[in-house]
Specification:
single chain; globular
Length: 99
Amino acid sequence: MKIFPFSRFTVYGNSMLPTLKEGQDVLVWCWFYTPRVGDIVIVQSAKGKVQREIIKRIVKIDRQRFYIEGDNKDESTDSREFGPIKKEQIIGKVIYIVR
């Protein structure tokens, strides 16, 4: 995947409700980003052999491990299930939500 300073992603699923709805587009800053608790981020996730991007919120940082969760806890697959992620998996921070 080629990464540009800004990228546009579409939200799939309901894991970030009520903050983000399925089908909404978000603008993401991908360069020189320092992750912080509370940031909404796009993450490269491996589910089996399939690589895909997911959108979650950083809820805890422990050294170089990042714990991410969806705002809609009942419908989110996140660090509560698969554990922490590495910084290298974070593509960028959501900086604008297209309404």
